[in-house]
């Protein structure tokens, strides 16, 4: 199965609708180059019977056939335009009466195609290649203008050629800067997305594992102390350890499955094919699971008084999970640091925000030796969760003693259907009766 996996990717990419093989695109591009040469030959052949402006403008328009070549091979395209423009000047330079009013000779218009290709090279190629292309183009144009300019128009033509080439280079530099800026923005967005995902995974793992490991450690300590004197209590501690461990393993499996399933289309193929026959992982926890969390905390030796108030209603998944994790982390800190047997949890469903509060009467700021209550990944994770939901978090010791964690998370506005007017309701009823 592993040997067949690499062959699936090329077949998928080649089956995309409207995709053209690279050889076909190259053939189309170079066909445009051949047509450009043919059109130039026709224009040069008829240049003796037309004003110099006509073949010059015609060669400039014919350069549009080189777009494919320019995108694939800009240096050969530059050579084609240089040769074509020079040939056009040689064939039309005798028509001295076809000059523009400013003194610029119209046969030099064909070099504007050369300037356009130079601008593209400046925008897409390295600085060394761009400098070489610009130098060669300016040198050829300068020599041709010096050889075929008439009288006092030499200076004017040289200045115009220089300005046109400089303008093309400036446009190319602007395009390069915009492209580099877009690439930098995309790279920054990718880096920020990766960092945000890493932080999210770190929060989930910490909140899920820290609480469970804390309960397991306490239950293990209780079981070891009463193993000989109270076998029934030791058995209960071992059962609590087993239940907590199974729950933690289920949560870890859910997280790993979510991380591996990056492409939904590949969920049922390859190495994940065997997973399709298994039961789907349990949904993420929410406030509805607080009773189970309270029971697990009680097994760890801390009795929790849970109070719910307000209009209890379904919440968005990310808000429901964040509120649950905040309560979970606060209870974990109570179990590990507060040295108290009782705490209170209050959940209030308001009209505009959800309030979650965990209060204990323990040691408050006097935490375990070497521990600072303002530090730790748990409190950092709380602040990150609340900030992502644009809420407010208050964490700290209470004046009367103990510790308090309070979070206020804004609720989304409920989506209500517009009330029907009597006329509209009557029309709806009549339409249904038909």
Could you list some keywords that capture this structure?
434 residues, alpha+beta, Heat Shock Protein 90, five-stranded mixed sheet, 13 helices, 5 strands, 9% strand, rod-shaped, disordered N terminus, disordered C terminus
List the helices and strands and how they pair.
Elements: H1 5-14, H2 22-45, H3 53-62, H4 67-72, H5 74-92, H6 111-124, H7 127-148, H8 153-226, H9 231-260, H10 290-299, E1 303-310, H11 317-338, E2 342-349, E3 353-360, H12 377-388, E4 392-397, E5 403-410, H13 422-433
Helix pairs in contact: 2-3, 2-5, 3-5, 5-6, 5-7, 6-7, 6-8, 7-8, 8-9, 8-11, 8-12, 11-12
Percent in strands:
5-15%
What is the strand tally?
Answer: 5
Structural class: alpha+beta
Q: What is the count of helical runs?
A: 13
* Low-pLDDT segments: 1-18, 95-103, 263-277, 366-374, 415-434
What's the rounded overall pLDDT mean? Answer: 77
Q: Please tell me what the overall shape is.
A: rod-shaped
- Element-by-element helix/strand order: HHHHHHHHHHEHEEHEEH
Report strand order across the widest sheet.
Answer: 1-2-3-5-4
Biggest sheet character:
5 strands, mixed
Q: Span from first to last CA?
A: 59 Å
- Cα gyration radius (Å): 38 Å
Estimate percent helicity. 55-70%
């Amino acid at each position: 199965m592993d040997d067949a996996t690499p062959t699936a990717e090329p077949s998928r990419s080649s089956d995309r609708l409207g995709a053209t093989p690279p050889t076909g695109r190259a053939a189309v591009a170079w066909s445009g180059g051949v047509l450009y040469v043919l059109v130039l030959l026709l224009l040069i052949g008829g240049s003796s019977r037309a004003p110099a402006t006509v073949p010059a403008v015609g060669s400039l328009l014919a350069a549009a056939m080189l777009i494919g070549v320019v995108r694939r091979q800009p240096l050969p395209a530059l050579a084609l335009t240089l040769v074509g423009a020079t040939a056009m000047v040689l064939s039309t330079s005798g028509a001295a009466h076809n000059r523009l009013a400013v003194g610029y000779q119209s046969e030099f218009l064909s070099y504007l195609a050369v300037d356009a290709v130079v601008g593209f090279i400046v925008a897409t190629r390295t600085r060394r290649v761009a400098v070489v292309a610009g130098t060669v183009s300016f040198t050829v144009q300068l020599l041709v203008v010096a050889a075929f300019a008439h009288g006092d128009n030499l200076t004017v033509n040289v200045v115009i050629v220089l300005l046109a080439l400089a303008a093309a280079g400036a446009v190319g530099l602007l395009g390069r800067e915009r492209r580099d800026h877009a690439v930098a923005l995309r790279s920054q967005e990718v880096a920020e997305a990766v960092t945000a995902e890493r932080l999210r995974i770190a929060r989930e793992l910490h909140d899920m594992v820290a609480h469970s490991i804390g309960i397991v450690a306490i239950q293990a300590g209780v079981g070891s102390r009463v193993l000989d004197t109270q076998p029934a209590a030791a058995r209960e501690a071992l059962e609590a350890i087993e239940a907590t461990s199974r729950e933690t393993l289920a949560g870890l499996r859910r997280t790993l499955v979510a991380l591996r399933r990056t492409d939904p289309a590949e969920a049922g193929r390859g190495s994940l094919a065997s997973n399709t026959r298994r039961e789907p992982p349990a949904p993420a926890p929410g406030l509805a699971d607080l009773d189970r969390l309270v029971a697990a905390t009680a097994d760890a030796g801390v009795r929790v008084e849970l109070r719910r108030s307000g209009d209890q209603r379904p919440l968005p998944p990310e808000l429901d999970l964040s509120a649950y994790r905040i309560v979970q982390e606060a209870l974990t800190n109570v179990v590990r640091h507060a040295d108290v047997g009782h705490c209170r949890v209050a959940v209030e469903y308001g009209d505009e925000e959800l309030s979650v509060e965990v209060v204990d009467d323990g040691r408050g700021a006097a935490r375990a030796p070497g521990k600072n209550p303002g530090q730790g990944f748990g409190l950092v994770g709380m602040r990150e969760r609340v900030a992502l939901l644009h809420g407010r978090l208050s964490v700290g010791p209470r004046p009367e003693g103990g510790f308090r964690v309070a979070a206020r998370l804004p609720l989304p506005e409920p989506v209500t259907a517009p009330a029907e007017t009597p006329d509209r309701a009557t029309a709806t009823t009549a339409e249904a009766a038909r």
